[in-house]
Amino acid sequence: MGSSATEGNTERIDDRDALSDWLADASNDGKIVRTRLRSSERVIARVTDGIYRAPASALREVISNAWDADATKVTIHTDAPRFERLFVRDNGIGMSYDTLSWLLHSIGGSAKRTRQGQRMGIADPVNADRSPSGRLLIGKIGIGLFSVSQLSQHFRIITKVKGNDFRLEAHVLLNTFSEDQNDLDDSEVEEFVSGEVAIHRIGTDDLEAHGTDIILDDIKPRVREILRSADRWTAIAEREAALERGDRESAAAIRDMAPRYHGGWIRNVHQGEEGPDLLDIEPKLPWGVDTPVDARMGALVEAVEGEFSRTNRPNLADTLDTYLHTLWTLALSAPVSYVDKHPFDLTSEDNVRLFWLSNEQRGQAIELDLTKNITIRQACMEQAPGAPTLQDGLPELGDSFQVEFDGVELKHPVRYSFHPTGVRGLETSLMFVGKYSPDLASTIDPMASGGRLDLEGYLFWNGRVVPKENNGVLIRVRGSSGESFRSDFFDYQISEQTRLRQITSELFVLKGLDAALNIDRESFNYSHPHFQLVNLWLHRALRQLTNRHKGITHTAREKRKSTAAAAQQDLVNTHAEEVWNSRRGDDAPPDVTIASTKDEAQTAREQGGTAIVQPSRAGISGATATQKVQTAASALLTVLDAYGLLGDLDYDDQQRLVEDILKIFEDDL
Ligand SMILES: Nc1ncnc2c1ncn2[C@@H]1O[C@H](COP(=O)(O)OP(=O)(O)O)[C@@H](O)[C@H]1O
Ligand SMILES: [Mg+2]
After folding, report:
1. Is 470 a pocket residue for ligand 1 (Cβ < 6 Å)?
2. Is residue 9 packed enough to be buried (19+ CB in 10 Å), middle (13-18) or exposed (0-12)?
3. Is 423 a residue whose pLDDT tops 70?
4. Residue 259 has pLDDT above 70, yes or no
5. How far apart are CA 503 and CA 472, in angstroms?
6. Pocket test for ligand 1, best of 68, 115, 199, 520 (most atoms within 8 A of CB)
7. 171 lines ligand 1 (CB under 6 A)
8. CA-to-CA distance for 149 and 154, rounded, in angstroms?
9. Which neighbouring-strand residues pair with 432?
10. Ligand 1 mean position to 577 CA, how many Å?
11. Cα–Cα distance between 546 and 552 in angstroms, integer?
């Protein structure tokens, strides 16, 4: 169609193929072409209306795109604590002119995981589901990049493909939308102009360079205020002002507390013409300038866990400002490694017991042996039925993916150290691991549609989950996830409140389920068969954990009871011996027998000992109670004997005296 027109010096091309041709043409080096964004109105309106709730969600999409583009390194810079600008760079494959044209003209229609994607070189030529280097592609819907419109009305994409002697710079300016455009019904949704783009083709000699930069120069004021934690700092300043005025009442009404760790605060950004912005509050970060980039995430997690000493249930909202919280959230959702190690790489050194989850409807988890210092992976492979290989966390084709955010290498902020509940709790954590690949083709279940489903998962029971936000279940589809753990475990209906609060769970979905992901890539379509299967599996797993945990706690309680009783009895015995020694000096204490029959008692007496028959009393049952009565009776005999009170009594009276005294203390025995 070649709809091109010349406006001043720059050409306007609104046809995708014509745009591609223009970009491919070396004679256009140094020139700028203009085009319009095209998408369905509804899609772009949704994006700008905030389906991506937090700034972290938009950044997550940008990181996912770098993953999909086979980048090994992503660098994000903010200008914290101002948050006017954001810069993201990756060293991925970049965008060809075809890819860029497609991107701008097919918002909401991703080429990834399609033939088209294979032709454009953004998917593996053999398996469209994977990136050129073999990674599982995360993208699918084709709106992720435009989620940055949430943060800024305009942004720049600078991109270069290895081997090309030019790079492309696209400056995107998005239109704003009126609210009621959401009301259009499907028939009215057509291609829609949602923004203007100017693309600059720039020649270069650096053939080797490759990658993509996304630059936001002008973050929206509202987003800036969120990232600055402005509400919080302003409230704190107001309280201080009120206190200075002596207005105790107003001060007391302001509850906001300063976060323990934060990126600092500048009240008036760009207010003084005279010089640079001054920090009103210096940043307080849990790492120092000398802390290596790859150790900083660990320092952050440790700092948050350290709040344990100050509060019962540390939480992120109180501990971190929005900036660090955003960093945390990104670290959780991005396809990066764990701060310590992958949960499947834990060993018995980590103070954990291992169970293998059954996929049967009424199945029970079986305990595996984690001794001899093997990892959970090894134990599962060696001992679980079917010798399963746990795939998640295995090095993906030997390459790495690193994301650095303002000098912090992001790692999943989940650690598996054991936090006891107190003296009465268990002494180890419990790890439940399973794998589920239902055979959907051969089942008669009407839900059997939607292709293959393949997942691995764990449920980790800990005395306390620290921070609080790590409680719940997180579903990672192809390594990437939404922004938080779901503490309701997707409507798990059984009232297990305490136990549920002690669980961290992740489900790694290797195949399937992404058709059930909603457009925000954080919530699920509950009626999708894959989601229902995953949910069912999760709830079965929770039930297995609950049963096991109940059993283990019960056994531990019984054991504790009997050891506590034994300790108590030791005290009684020691006391009796002390009385004996103080009355009788070095005389050997009597050899006391609490016999079960009269004959037995008689035999013991004949051998020179003191003896009575075990006092039989109503209301006594159980080994522990019996033991207690025996101890008391024997101590009593020793004490009476020490005072010389037994010798005058015949055996029957000895028996009655002990029973009569014990009766007084019946309730305590
Ligand atoms: N960092 C990047 N490197 C290379 N290509 C990218 C990058 N970001 C986006 N793209 C291209 O833009 C397209 C649209 O991205 P996006 O809107 O996130 O949708 P999706 O990832 O679902 O395809 C991608 O399919 C890809 O071709
Ligand atoms: Mg994407």
Report:
1. no
2. exposed
3. no
4. yes
5. 6
6. 68
7. no
8. 7
9. 355, 459
10. 82
11. 10
User: What is the bridge-based pairing of β-strands 73-78 and 86-90?
Assistant: antiparallel
Q: Is the pLDDT of residue 533 over 90?
A: yes
CA of 100 to the centre of ligand 1 (A): 9
The SS3 of residue 170 is strand
Pocket test for ligand 1, best of 103, 147, 159, 167 (most atoms within 8 A of CB): 103
Mean of the pLDDT values across residues 61-89?
Answer: 96
Distance CA 40, CA 44 (A): 7
Q: Which amino acid is at 527?
A: S
- Report whether residue 160 contacts ligand 1, using a CB cutoff of 6 Å: no
- Give the up-direction half-sphere exposure of residue 11: CA atoms within 13 A in the CB hemisphere: 17
The finding on whether 120 has its CB within 6 A of some atom of ligand 1 is no
DSSP β-ladder status, 610-613 and 592-595:
parallel
Ligand 1 centroid, distance to 24 Cα (angstroms):
19
Cis peptide before 259 (omega within 30 of 0): no
- Provide the mean pLDDT of the chain: 88
Which tens digits make up the pLDDT trace of 190-245?
444 478 999 999 999 999 999 999 999 999 999 999 999 999 999 999 999 999 99
Q: Which of 435, 336, 355 is nearest to 393 (CA)?
A: 336
Cis bond before residue 286 (omega within 30° of 0) = no
Residue with tokens 């989620």: 147
- Ligand positioned closest to the Cα atom of 103: 1
**Ligand 1 contacts CB of residue 333 (under 6 A):** no
Any atom of ligand 1 within 6 Å of the Cβ of 65: yes
Buried b (16+ CB within 10 A) or exposed e, 98-136: bbbbbbbbbbbbbbbbeebbbebebbbeeebbbbbeebb
Q: From the CA of 585, how far away is ligand 2's center (Å)?
A: 87
Strands 610-613 and 366-368, by their bridges, are unpaired
pLDDT digits (tens, 9 = 90+) for 119-151: 999 999 999 999 999 999 999 888 888 888 889
Ligand 1, atom 9: nearest CA belongs to which residue?
A: 65
Tokens (6 digits) for 381: 């492979």
Using only C-alpha atoms, the chain has a radius of gyration, in whole angstroms, of 35
Residues 6+ apart with CB under 8 A from 593: 600, 601, 604, 609, 610, 611
Q: Distance, CA 45 to ligand 1 centroid (Å)?
A: 19
Cβ atoms of residues 103 and 95 within 8 Å: yes
73-78 and 402-405 as β-strands: parallel, antiparallel, unpaired?
Answer: parallel
Atom of ligand 1 nearest to the CA of 143: 17
Report which residue type is found at 174: L
- Tell me which ligand sits closest to the C-alpha of residue 131: 1
DSSP state of 177: -
DSSP state of 94: -
The burial of 234, by beta-carbon neighbours within 10 Å (0-12 exposed, 13-18 middle, 19 or more buried), is given as middle
Task: Using CB atoms within 10 Å of the CB of residue 295, give its burial: 0 to 12 exposed, 13 to 18 middle, 19+ buried.
Answer: middle
- The reply to whether ligand 1 has any atom less than 6 angstroms from the CB of 37 is no
Decide: helix, strand or coil at residue 555: helix
> pLDDT per residue over 153-187, tens digit each?
899 999 999 999 999 999 999 876 544 445 444 44
Q: What is the residue with the minimal CA distance to atom 11 of ligand 1?
A: 103
Q: Which DSSP state fits 270?
A: T
- Alpha carbon distance 183, 362 (integer Å): 47
Rounded Cα–Cα distance for residues 259 and 284 (Å): 9
**Ligand 1, closest atom to CA 90?**
1
